[in-house]
UniProtKB/TrEMBL annotation:
An example Gene Ontology CC term for this record: side of membrane
Organism per entry: Diabrotica balteata
EC number(s) recorded for this UniProt protein: 3.4.11.2
Superkingdom assignment: Eukaryota
InterPro entries: ERAP1-like_C_dom (IPR024571), Peptidase_M1_aminopeptidases (IPR050344)
GO MF assignments: alanyl aminopeptidase activity; metalloaminopeptidase activity; peptide binding; zinc ion binding
Cofactor: Zn(2+)
Main location class: membrane
Record key words, sorted: Cell membrane, Disulfide bond, Glycoprotein, GPI-anchor, Hydrolase, Lipoprotein, Membrane, Metal-binding, Metalloprotease, Protease, Signal, Zinc
Keyword check for Metal-binding: yes
Name this polypeptide is given: Aminopeptidase N
Length: 434
């Protein structure tokens, strides 16, 4: 038990199969989410409970370990694994253990092919979540080809459960951030539209269920609608505008279900103008519902009108317009915007003294500004500019050294991802667009 309680992190289990012998070599190493550090020379290990299922014996309900990967031994061989040459194996039944799993490429391909077939639900929801998350995280750090991850996601055209979709959206959001300022983004949007269109049409767009028992259904719909509008799937933008116009014509907020408001507000502001922005701003000022005010405040940053984004950032430093504790949320919402990133960056660099004085009673909030900006920096030119900015304002940032260090590290990780994966993903997208 000490291996889990006295050391940080958790392992990746590597499953390398010998198909001729129906066996697999199992090894482990520490999972490092960052790709800028060398491999861990200390070689920590864990006692890992190994449960698994195969295509011919999909006993996922059995979470009792069939084997243990011991420590300090880093590897072992499991015999009699799979009865057929096309028998996939999936480790960690129902995600009962705290570890990620990587497989040889052939096994990944067999899992992917099965998920794309009619019996994909043989693999339970939790393991579908695990497969998506593990593939994404392993690809991110270079331990798996991104092509395997992109091919795997194609099964989502028949996925109807919230948790696998949430995992997929969370992981593709990371890729979106890295590609949105690149020449590959147009083809990436096509790929995402291809994934999202079947489930969006299945929901009927914004068509709402009033069944309180369908909580996951509602959460999934909100997630799908949000990304479908972002990638301009089918009639998503038009439907959002229609709902917004109904809201403008009535006093009741119930015209737009609360779970869909964020998607509607952001979509309309992105494709709208001053009238839509002012309507939501007035609604923000007059609302006394905290959750509604927060939803509006976050989505006011979705407009792509430069002057409105600039004004919004200026208002965020005015206590009569926006509460002081919400100023960093405004900055984060603008910096996530494809257009707003550049506005937010220049605003922060040129108005640091104003921001600092505004946050004087809570200087740690300044870390949130750095975090929001650094998370969006994905090219070398902006990295150098950010480094110069930090070095030129050491006195201002002296009390938030931890936040500064974390932000600098985030930028390094983002840039390393670009160097490692940008061309790889561009080639994958070129293949899919043919």
């Amino acid at each position: 038990m000490d291996t889990w309680t006295v050391q940080t992190g958790y392992p990746v289990i590597n499953v390398m199969r010998d198909y001729s012998k129906k066996s697999a070599s199992i090894s482990q190493h520490r999972h490092l989410r960052d790709i800028i550090y060398p491999k861990d020379a200390s070689k920590p290990c864990w006692w890992v409970p190994l449960s698994y299922s195969t295509k011919s014996n999909p006993n996922f309900n059995s979470t009792t370990p069939k084997h243990w990967l011991s420590c300090p031994e880093h590897s072992q061989t499991i015999e009699d694994l799979g009865d057929e040459k096309n028998d996939w194996v999936i480790f960690n039944n129902k995600m009962a253990g705290i570890y990620k799993v990587n497989y040889d490429e052939r096994n990944w391909n067999m899992i992917t092919k099965f998920l794309q077939g009619p019996d994909f639900q043989t693999i339970p929801t939790l393991n579908r979540v695990q497969i998506i998350s593990d593939a994404a995280d392993l690809a991110y750090i270079g331990n798996l080809k991104y092509e395997i991850f992109f091919e795997l996601l194609k099964y989502l055209k028949q996925e109807t459960e919230y948790m696998p979709w949430k995992a997929a959206i969370d992981k593709t959001d990371v890729i979106t951030k890295h590609l949105k300022k690149s020449a590959s983004y147009g083809k990436y949007k096509e790929y995402m539209r291809h994934l999202l269109t079947p489930i969006y049409e299945k929901f009927g767009g914004f068509e709402v269920t009033t069944d309180p028992e369908k909580l996951d259904y509602i959460k999934l719909q909100a997630l799908i609608v949000s990304r479908s509008c972002a990638f301009e799937v089918a009639n998503c933008v038009t439907q959002a505008k229609t709902l917004f116009n109904k809201l403008k014509g009535k006093q009741s907020d119930n015209v737009i279900p609360k779970d869909l408001r964020s998607a509607v507000y952001c979509t309309v502001l992105k494709h709208g103008g001053e009238a839509e922005w002012d309507f939501l701003w007035n609604k923000y000022q007059n609302s006394n519902v905290a959750t509604e005010k927060s939803t509006i405040l976050t989505n006011l940053g979705c407009t792509e009108e430069i002057w409105m984004l600039t004004r919004y950032l200026e208002w965020s430093l005015n206590d009569t317009q926006i509460r002081r504790q919400d100023s960093s949320s405004v900055f984060a919402s603008v910096s996530r915007n494809n257009v707003g990133y550049f506005i937010a960056k220049n605003f922060f660099y040129n108005n640091l003294d104003k921001v600092y004085k505004h946050l004087l009673t809570n200087k740690k909030t300044l870390s949130r500004y750095l975090s929001a900006l650094s998370n969006q920096i994905t090219d070398a030119k902006d990295e150098k500019e950010f480094d110069r900015f930090i070095k030129g304002n050491k006195k201002t940032f002296v009390e938030i050294k931890k936040g500064v260090d974390q932000s600098l590290e985030t930028v390094k990780i983002n840039i390393q991802w670009q160097h490692t994966h940008a061309e790889e993903i561009a080639n994958i997208l070129n293949k899919y667009s043919k």
